[in-house]
Amino acid sequence: MSSSLIQLECGCNNYPWGKKGKESLAAQYAASTPGGNFKLDESKEYAEMWCGTYPTTPSSILSTGEDLQKHLNAHADQLIGPSILKKHGTDLPFLPKILSIAKALPLQIHPDKSLAAKLHKQDPEKYSDDNHKPEIAVALGKFEVFVGFKPLEKIEKLFTTIPVLKEKFGVKGKLEKEGLRELVGKILGASDEEIVGVYEKLRGMKKEEFGDEGHITDLLPRLAEQYDKSDPGNLVALLTMNFLVLEKGDAIFVPADGIHAYLSGNIVECMARSDNVINTGFCPRADRDDVSLFTNALTFSPSSGEDALLKPTSSNKGVYGKTKVLAPPMSEFNMLVTQLGPRDKETIKAIDGPSVILVTDGKGTLKAGGEVQSAKEGYIFFLGAGTELNVTSDDGLELHMAYCEA
Ligand SMILES: [Zn+2]
Question: Residue 295 sits in a domain of what CATH number?
């Protein structure tokens, strides 16, 4: 028998869009692991802490140093549980992360299952998975994000009334989905000079000229400073995508093939087990993937900012009503969010599958399967299938718990 409540040691990656040194919440969390090996380097960017078993940044068991996936393989029946074993095998089917975002992430989509299978077959080095990667992002504070396309009428209005856009991209009449696909392709395929030309013209416009989309004026120079005036991501994001400013607790769902680019903030992210991505903007030209690969795969969901939001609902898994659930329309995971005040408690009923718990605020105690562990912001735990979890807080405690149930 393995213990069911296992504290993990998780690694961070250093993508250049991450926050630097101890400014990064991901780095702070990695550094908070008691007795862990992580050494925070103030000169490095820390973008993402990965809390799972994906092989490029695998988590290990804090007390023994053993690789978590190896441990799960050896105790699969107990820890993964028979129903999830049957459905997804021994690999943890989901991957939670903490992201600390200082500047825009590449403008991206994650291919759906059939495209992922095809790309993986063609180029397994670059596309490491044959799986889809729908994801959710939950704000831990102010979170700025571009997600999905604006309603078509809004895009049409910009491209048919602003002279430089009208002239350059030639949107005629009513804009339909396929017309939008073509338009995005045109922007992404334009030369650096053409993009800079459009950028300069838009920069010269007054806020009022953008109607109810005044954020375009504010964000144009900010984005250009992060990458370059010549980056087509600036135009795709500002002119065609929804821009949302979320507050702590707000969440979005990005389906497979859904266009997105996160701009700033600290978030909890969770996705199906995959690391496939197609990038076309907010990155150097050399790192951009093929424009037609990107545009052909694009989906038009979500179709408005409101449509991208994933609303929490109350969960019957929390016995004392302190727990909500974020349930994206996919089977690999849901996420429970438990919030306790001072000297408060919650019991989370046994889940018929594996869970990963991220302590995202406060301090307290977790009890499960006879084990008692102290919990503190930044600590990460694996919880085995079929185990009830008792949570108590000191001055307050917040948990994000990703789980998979058949
Ligand atoms: Zn993504």
Answer: 2.60.120.10
- pLDDT for the residue 173: 82
User: What is the spatial distance between Cα 100 and Cα 268, in angstroms, rounded to a whole number?
Assistant: 9
Cα 122 to middle of ligand 1, angstroms: 21
* Distance (Å) from CA 47 to ligand 1 centroid: 13
Looking at residue 22, the DSSP 8-state letter turns out to be G
Write out the residue range of the structural domain in which residue 54 sits.
8-60+93-147+245-308
Q: Residue 253: what pLDDT?
A: 96
71 in a labelled binding site: no
From ligand 1's centre to the CA of 108, what distance in Å? 6
Specify the amino acid at residue 385: A
CA pseudo-torsion sign 311, 314, 315, 320? positive
Give me ligand 1 centre to Cα 155, in Å. 23
Tell me whether residue 215 is annotated as binding: no
Name the nearest CA neighbour of 38 among 55, 13, 64.
Answer: 13
53 and 108 housed in the same domain: yes
> Ligand 1 centroid to 334 CA: how many Å?
17
Among 308, 325, 345, the domain boundary falls at 308
Distance from Cα 106 to the centre of ligand 1, integer Å? 9
The 10s digit of each residue's pLDDT in 32-56 is 999 989 999 999 999 999 999 999 9
Q: 135 CA distance to ligand 1 centroid (A)? A: 7
pLDDT digits (tens, 9 = 90+) for 138-165: 999 999 999 999 999 999 999 999 999 9
| Residue burial 31-60, b: 16+ Cβ < 10 Å; e: rest | bebeebebeeeeeebbbbbbbbbbeebbbb
Say yes or no: 185 and 39 in one domain.
no
Domain final residue pick, 235, 257, 277 = 235
Verify that 54 and 121 share a domain, yes or no: yes
- Does 75 appear as a known binding residue? no
Number of domains making up the chain: 2
Residue 135 in marked binding region: yes
Same domain for 42 and 128, yes or no, is yes
